[in-house]
Amino acid sequence: MTQDEVEIRGLIERWAGAVHRGEMDAVVADHADDIVMFDVPPPHEGIRGIDAYRAAWPPFFEWQAHGATFDIESLDVTAGEDVAYAYALLRCGTPEEFAERPENRLRLTLGLRKEQGRWIVAHEHHSFPYTDAG
User: Fold this and answer.
1) Which residues, 6 or more positions from 127, have their beta carbon under 8 angstroms from its beta carbon?
2) DSSP H/E element including 7
3) Where in the chain are the domains?
């Protein structure tokens, strides 16, 4: 693993820990001002910009405070000289949700770029597998 990949892995692990703890400043710390996030809940056209990204998190933190988890299960990172991507599977749900569907995982994909020697997240995509049998 390259030094850049180690740095990015640490950045993502810190971010996931901050999400789990509901620490907003740490959640947004390593994100670009022009971040684009495609999330599970609406808006379907995505969230654009750091202010909109910041505004999207409080409802999740409130839901999570009722016992939900947000834990990285697997994480892969590939880094070039100034761009990188990572993908992960996370346990994201309540105990009741995992009792009903223990295999369910949140899928996370990140696009990063290096600015002034520092890695930042420029794109974030969250999704769950489609499971509607109807």
Assistant:
1) 38, 40, 106, 107
2) helix 3-21
3) 3-127
- Residue 102: how many CA atoms within 13 Å on its side-chain side? 1
3-127 belongs to which CATH class?
Answer: alpha beta
C-alpha triplet 104, 105, 106: angle, nearest 5°:
135
**37-40: which pairs have CB atoms within 8 A and are 24 or more residues apart?**
37/123, 37/124, 37/125, 37/126, 38/124, 38/125, 38/126, 38/127, 39/124, 39/126, 40/106, 40/126, 40/127, 40/128
Instruction: Summarize the confidence of residues 107-124 as an average pLDDT.
Output: 98
pTM value > 0.85: yes
pLDDT given for residue 41 in this prediction: 84
